[in-house]
Design a protein that fits this description.
single chain, 10 strands, globular
Amino acid sequence: MKTDTNMKRFILSATIALMLTPFASAQKPLTFSKVEIKGTVDEMTAALGRKGFKYEETNDGVPLVIGKYAGYSDVEVNIIPKEGSNEAAAIRAEIPPRLSWVKLENDYSSVKAMLTKQYGKPVEETETFRDGPFEESSEKLVSLIKNRCTFRSVFECPEGKVTLTLKHQGPICFVCVLYENAL
């Protein structure tokens, strides 16, 4: 009799554990400035507003807020919705532009160090020029503007991935960080 009771308890416990497993392993969202990337874009805009970000505008359903991130002020942050939805899926942060390669590279290195401390070593890392060698650091900036340079580091974690890049829009060069929740 005692064996039957123990077996029933074991089966019941195993069944309950299997039923609860999906809830226990539910995907947690990434965080940006201590705010979870979840809910609607309006809820994310409000949550970042409570952290000191100021709403600027919305273009094509993508809100823009400005605030402090990684020790930088006036960082432009877009809250990107899932395709065909109003649910927040990603955050893109752009550090204010730099006119000097040295300052731009320092920004990149500083943010990379912060992300490495938080997420560990990047799973992908490319920091290359297709031109060079360069006599002046300004030539490196021109290489970026001409799309002849790639600076990109990708960090992965169970919640998603974070991609750090150097970007430009015309002659304006800046550091960009993209936080994407796992699907």
